[in-house]
Specification:
By secondary structure, the chain is of the alpha+beta class.
């Protein structure tokens, strides 16, 4: 059995595992929104860091993503070279595989590089699922 110190050390390192937990209200559509302001990867051409704020929003089905594992997963890109478009599509695909949501959208707002701001938005929609119509209140 590993010591508490060893277990704690493993919890504070980047990781590729995404943990999930059962949706506490699977009978209802509801939205989970997360802001991740410290995403970092490396430019595959120059090796310089690219910084972005990720916005994740999803309608869970049976599983929700656990926040600490998401943090460690996002951290795992810090020293990896990746084009913006590729890395954001990869993250969405991994999150969809882990949670199988009804709907998921991941937006990445990258800081300026060479005078250009880049925003990438990717989505997943479960076949046959459509959102409820919005309610307009007076």
């Amino acid at each position: 059995m590993a010591s508490k110190e060893a277990l704690g050390a493993n919890l504070n390192r980047p990781g590729k595992d995404l943990e999930t937990f059962p949706n506490p209200s699977p009978e209802r559509d509801y939205t989970i929104r997360m802001e991740i302001p410290e995403f970092t990867c490396l430019c595959p051409k120059t090796g310089q860091p690219d910084f972005a704020t990720l916005s994740l929003e999803y309608v869970p089905d049976e599983r929700c993503v656990e926040l600490k594992s998401l943090k460690l997963y996002i951290w795992s890109f810090r020293d990896r070279g990746a084009f913006h478009e590729a890395v954001i599509n990869e993250i969405l695909a991994r999150l969809v595989d882990a949670t199988m949501p009804r709907f998921m959208r991941l937006s990445a707002r990258f800081n300026v590089r060479g005078g250009i701001y880049t925003t990438i938005i990717v989505e997943h929609r479960l076949n046959g699922w459509s959102p409820a119509r919005p309610v307009d209140l007076p």
